[in-house]
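Changelog-adjacent note: as of this version, every example in the card shows the full chain rather than a window. The one below runs 388 residues end to end.
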Amino acid sequence: MLPVSGVESIFEGGPPRRLTALARLPSPVAPNAGIRAMLAFGLAWIPLAVLVAIDIVLGRTGILYTFIEDIGVHARYAVAVPLLVLAHVVCARRLGLIARHFQGSGLLSEEDEVRAAEALEAARRRVHSLWAEAAVLLVVYAQVAAMLLTEPAVLGQARWQVTVDGARLSPAGWWHTMVSIPLLLALLLGWLWRIANWAWFLRSIARLDLHLVAAHPDQSGGLGFLAQSVRAFSIVGMGLGTIVAGRFAYVHRHDLAMPFTDPMLMASVTVLVLLLAVGPLLFFVRPLMQAWRRGALLYGVLATDMGVQFEHSWFRGPHDRPMLSEPDFSATTDLYQVVSNVYGMRFIPVDPRSLLMLVGATLAPFVPAMFLSMPAQVVIDELKALLF
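Full-length structure tokens:
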């Protein structure tokens, strides 16, 4: 079995390595996750504000308002980037602990526990692969190069991102293009890589001979602990929701919204986050359905036998026994409660509360985005219409 600290870090590494490596730097450089998030914030957003301020000091006018009004930029680099860095600890560490729980959980035989350990080690190697790091950096800067080569660099850019004549990128525009955008893309691709490896690991586990208990009170055959992964993804969902909410605020602030814009943005990010968080759990649908079929047959026979005995004892002849002191009722109730767990098994090991937490965290950034881009009374009326 892998040591706890080692398993916790299995999904914390990976691309972008130079950023996640801060987790291993000693104090006082990056003593905690909050400091690391602030460092990312300082790299992605603060230079933009400083370079815009320098332009203003040098005599340029009219760009302060456009920078302040660019809500999408602030949402992406001042909020989403730090959230995605914090997720390395909040989410990735939780995934490691969940992965470790399969060992010693009673769900696997000794032989399969060895295979689970091998799957963990393989996932660790892939997450920390230098090839993955290089591929992410290559994709990120290939995208940046494509943006610069296939269309004018200044096309569609805000005023604060271009020079006075609009012909070239300003210093803030260059930083945004060469540092801020690549950093965000690297974080997003890094999370896609972690989730892909998380899914691969769960697929490997689902193929083993799992000792699922159909009557388990978690109604997931003993896999209910996997729902914790959905909750852990809430901070990732909030980061993605912040990016989309920034776009939401931008289109409303600049009167670009269309009737279908709002539901499309909210629905798209919600569906995306659900696919990323819940999708890997779909590998357990088949073993859970098999456990349910087997359990429904076995426990169904047991419940029928108990019911027949109960009815024979109480309904076929006179009975003058005090019912409150008879064990028949409590025994029947207890058995039927166990059987109801079997018939109520979930085929996906996730509970409604975890889904609600994930969706709520994903959509939470839209509330301040509404207040920033719409009149307060309109926002209140819209929220009332949704809730009542």
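Structural remarks: Confidence is low (pLDDT under 50) at residues 1-5, 22-29.
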